[in-house]
## 1
Amino acid sequence: MWNKAGYALLYAWVTVHAVLPMRVLYVLSDILYVLIYKIAGYRLKVVRRNMKASFPDKTAAELRRMERDFYRHFSDYIVETIKLAHISLEEVQRRAHLRNPEVVNRLFDEGHTCVILLMVHYGNWEWFSASNDRFHANTYQIYRPLSNPAFDRLFIRLRTRFGSYGMKKNDTFRDIVRLHQSKSRSAIIFLADQTPSRANLHYQTTFLNQDTYLLTGPERIARKLNLPVVFLDTKKVKRGHYTIDFELLTASPKETPENRITEQYARKAEQCILRNPACWLWTHKRWKYSNT
């Protein structure tokens, strides 16, 4: 009962704020920046540790500037995600612009039924994965259920508002096999820069100047089913505006050496982050198993 009531209150609060124009939401973002960063210091130790290890050559002043820029962007990400409850499809497509979706659509037109899309927690990934009419296929987002039921239900609703579908992380392989066998055209989005579980520390490389374990699940699924893999290179153009360039990593995963796709993803993700580090999600403990 409390979960339902909590969700109703949470969604009502989000909806009230979502009707505000973006210029007003960005004023709220500026206030939120002070609350999250200056007052609460949300995961500040994690952010500082991650940044210092990733950029050992930067001065303390440069790291602090990067830190401030990150929290400003993170505050924007929060209000932009809230806006999903009310934003029109036309506006979200204008603000989250796909520069060359024909790279993906061509794969479907050539007869592929499922395509793996590899993203990074960069810019505003929620805006890009929310719409189901970007490709000649249904769009699925791999997600890890949140521990708070109200927030979990809220994010599912926001992420699927324009017709895309959620796919639980633990059901990923089974669901992709089902889609592949049914020949249902499907674009499957992985945010693959998360930390693997302790049981899945299969591949390690250097990433942002650190020994890093990477998720190998997307590559293993792609190789098993021979699904094309495409990298989504995200750029922040200006406040509230992003672009994505699609780059085909391989159309024939079974013919690529083991771990090649995962390594390609690491290098592309690193280039994306280094372009503007403030737009990456630095609050995650991505290197907690690096020394195991």
## 2
Amino acid sequence: MRYLLLLLTVASLLLAETGYAQLRTLPANAKRTTTGMQPHPLPYVELGGKVVRLAPGGVIYDQNNRTIVHGALPAGADVAFTTDMHGDIARIYILTPQEQARLDQRR
């Protein structure tokens, strides 16, 4: 009986995590672009063919909504980003195929 209860608990946690990643809400003011092909030293990233500065405290989210370091940002990825009041990049979201399709429909 304990084994079954443990199995159900683990299954529900795994399903909850999958559902959370699919329900991610992107900021309304996010702009869409692609990442560059060449890595740059911190705090710089390449977005849309321009080298821009990642803000202090700037965060990069992968497709599963986990934070990643700037060196793990994949080249040529479709992303959405927001800027802070100084024009630095505050947040970068690597888009899932579903998010890409949803943003394509808004255009």
